[in-house]
Design goal:
heterodimer; A: alpha+beta; Vanillyl-alcohol Oxidase, Chain A, domain 3; 21% strand; globular; B: alpha/beta; Rossmann fold; 9 helices
Chain lengths: 454, 245
């Protein structure tokens, strides 16, 4: 509420100290930023983009990318979390238009009571729509619904040189395909039209089946593809090629389950000491987890929160891995190359460094929605590794070799260290993406994998 | 609490308060400067469950616009039962120390215009002998500090005004709530190192609870500030004047 004359005088001090508080979910690498813009309204974006130097900006959402794809070390971020308004909703079709900073949690809160759910959801609901598009995230229903980007009908993209660009199948289709999975580099996603899907209610028919080998996992996965919309497996990474795990599958339920009240769970207040997670404690956890689930009643009706987002119930669970943070390794390996997959598992088991969050999923054959989309037919595995310095990085390099050899790929949203060569192998067409990068945008990840300095 | 007028609807705290009110199915009348922002806000709040949303673009700092605002409220939401004043301005204190223009603007926006618009709005509530008036002041108004006394004195004066108003409206059964937030992470404080400030969501939750209960008379949010400010007020002036915070 200030007048013009005074507003002109109210300016930030010229030299601000670097911003150090912003990290990615893995809390590695630890970089500082020169400045963080926090627009509260989308009418403030043109000014920010216009004033930006080449390669200086990167849009930032809720920081759930694990590595450095959401960071822009030494440069600037545009924190989009305050751009979180729902700009329209069509009750008859379920098409919602929302600003890029709206979180999936917000969409569930507002639209699930009306009988609409996300078309695709990752393992956490604390990501923004903009982030879900920029990483073209996938979920437990990849085999029947593809990625998040496949359900985005239109995007309003703010670019530094062209202003607001409408991207849809009719207008700028190539820009739409570049922005989906485009790691935030094509501009700021101001708004997007997302097609929600009708569901009967917030309950899920869930089933869990223990399995003891890779082949039995594949069998389960194939038989589930037809009659279960969602499927994923947890695996005990200490078991090596004598794999064991729990296969989770489910469908939206028509009947009512027990009433539930979503509540905020406990929060880890500070990073746990690093020694608490060691091969013995994790092995104990994994064994207990396996047996608890293997002996549980196999079919039940559960709340969708606990089906989709078990980890969201502990806020800041990433602090489990201690001060130095952790790295997540998510790769996809073609199914024709199961040997490579077993070799990968062996390597992880032998290292003894794996942890309890091993996730296995068979991707479907949907064609990619974006130019740099990660999901492709094959088996994908995601595993956390506490950051223990050089030996952790060495293990991951040995895994890289297997992935490279097998014709697989690594997921940028989870990565903090892949080599330019592996990026090239994972996304052979990345050079055709380059013309779509906004001149003011760059990221730590992008500079690392493309070897671009500016 | 069903029909609420919000003066300063695009302020950081008001945005969160409105979301909570929308979820409760309230009818809202929003006043702020930018018509475009109000339009965005309206679709958002309707999607989130607000029964109705009316918007009126106006500069609350300009007193000649006040009559039209009240007229609009009487017309669109004649039975409004709650008025929340949530606008304010915080300049860099150093600028205000060296510029009388900024000093006067700070006092005008935070105090003079606020008392003016409240005065015209409470007349309706007093006549109808119902309702609740709440205004966001600040813990900065509880004691004049070296680093922020200009903003603080305007907010402190507003707190004093509300104290008197509360007493005046008590016989009519109209409640007056003074909301004193500690530092909150909003666009207004982005130029400060605000990582440890309170979340606007938390502050908004406290405010909505107070509006529903029509109590307490003075709300400190987060709550710890009640105790902090009680302690700060006890420090003898001879010592306090030497403190630089």
């Amino acid at each position: 509420m200030s007048g013009q004359s005074a507003a002109a005088l109210r300016k930030q001090p010229a030299a601000l100290p670097p911003v150090t508080g912003i990290l990615s979910w893995g809390r590695y690498p630890k970089v500082s930023h020169h400045h963080v813009h926090k627009p509260a309204w989308n009418d403030q974006l043109p000014e920010i983009l216009k004033a930006a130097a080449p390669g200086s900006l990167l849009p930032y959402g809720l920081g759930r990318s694990y590595g450095d794809s959401c960071l822009n070390g030494g440069r600037e971020l545009v924190d989009c979390c305050r751009l979180n308004r729902i700009l329209g909703f069509d009750e008859s079709t379920g098409m919602v238009r929302c600003e890029g900073g709206v979180s999936l949690a917000d969409i569930i809160d507002v639209f699930l009571p009306k009988g609409w759910f996300l078309p695709v959801t990752p393992g956490t609901r604390f990501v923004t729509v903009g982030g879900a598009i920029a990483n073209d995230v996938h979920g437990k229903n990849h085999h029947c619904a593809g990625t998040f980007g496949a359900h985005v009908r239109q995007i309003g993209l703010h670019r530094s040189n062209d202003g607001l660009v409408l991207c849809s199948p009719e207008h700028n289709l190539d820009m739409l395909r570049a922005t989906i999975g485009g790691l935030g580099l094509t501009g700021v996603i101001v708004w997007a039209d997302v097609q929600l899907k009708r569901v009967a209610g917030p309950w899920m028919n869930a089933e869990l089946v223990p399995f003891q080998s890779l082949n039995s996992f594949l069998e389960l996965s194939r038989e589930s593809n037809d009659c279960f919309e969602y499927s994923v497996a947890w695996l005990d990474c200490f078991a090596g090629r004598n794999l064991r795990g729990i296969f989770f599958r489910g469908n939206h339920a028509a009947e009512r389950g027990k009433d539930f009240h979503p509540k905020r769970g406990p929060k880890l207040p500070f990073p746990l000491p690093a020694w608490m997670l060691n091969r013995y404690s994790v092995r104990c956890f994994n064994t207990a987890y396996y047996w608890i689930h293997a002996t549980k009643q196999s079919a039940s009706v559960v709340a969708c929160d606990s089906f989709f987002y078990p980890l969201d119930s502990i806020r800041q669970w990433n602090l489990l891995y201690g001060k130095r943070g952790f790295l997540q390794y998510q790769c996809v390996i073609p199914e024709t190359n199961l040997d490579a997959f077993e070799e990968l598992l062996d390597n992880i088991a032998r290292s003894g460094m794996g942890s309890f969050l091993g996730v296995l999923k068979q991707f479907g054959s949907a064609s990619p929605a974006g130019m740099l989309s990660f999901p492709r037919p094959g088996l994908t595995i995601a595993l956390d590794f506490a950051m223990r310095g050089e030996r952790t990085l060495q293990l991951m390099e040995s895994l890289d070799e297997i992935v490279l050899k097998s014709g697989g790929a690594l997921y940028p949203a989870k990565d903090a260290r892949m080599s330019p060569a592996l990026f090239e192998a994972s996304f052979p067409r990345w050079r055709s993406f380059v013309p779509y990068v906004d001149p003011t945008m760059s990221s730590s990840f992008w500079r690392r994998v493309t070897g671009v300095r500016s | 609490m069903k029909k609420i007028v919000i003066l300063g609807a695009t302020s950081g705290i008001a945005l969160e308060v409105q979301r909570l009110l929308a979820r409760r199915g309230c009818e809202l009348l929003l006043v702020a400067r930018s018509a475009q922002r109000l339009a965005e806000l309206k679709t958002d709040l309707l999607a989130r469950g607000a029964e109705q949303v009316f918007t009126y673009p106006a500069d609350l700092g300009s007193i000649q616009e006040h009559a039209a605002i009240v007229e609009f409220a009487r017309h669109m939401l004649p039975e409004f039962d709650t008025v929340l004043l949530s606008y304010g301005s915080m300049h860099n204190q150093k600028d205000a120390e060296s510029s009388v223009d900024i000093l006067l603007e700070e006092l005008h926006v935070n105090f003079v215009s606020a008392t003016a618009i409240l005065t015209v709005f409470v007349a309706d509530l007093e006549r109808r002998r119902t309702g609740c008036v709440a205004a966001i002041t600040s813990v900065a108004g509880d004691r004049g500090r070296r680093s922020n006394y200009i903003y603080g004195s305007a907010k402190g004066a507003l707190s004093l005004f509300l104290q008197g108003l509360r007493s005046r409206l008590h016989p009519a059964g109209v409640r007056v709530i003074t909301i004193k937030p500690g530092p909150v992470r909003t666009p207004m404080t982005d130029h400060l190192p605000n990582a440890r400030f309170a979340d606007p969501e938390q502050v908004a939750g406290d405010i909505v609870r107070a509006l529903e209960r029509r109590s307490p008379d003075v709300l400190y949010t987060p709550r710890v500030w009640r105790y902090v400010m009680t302690a700060v007020q006890q420090i003898p002036e001879g010592i306090f004047k030497r403190l630089s915070f």
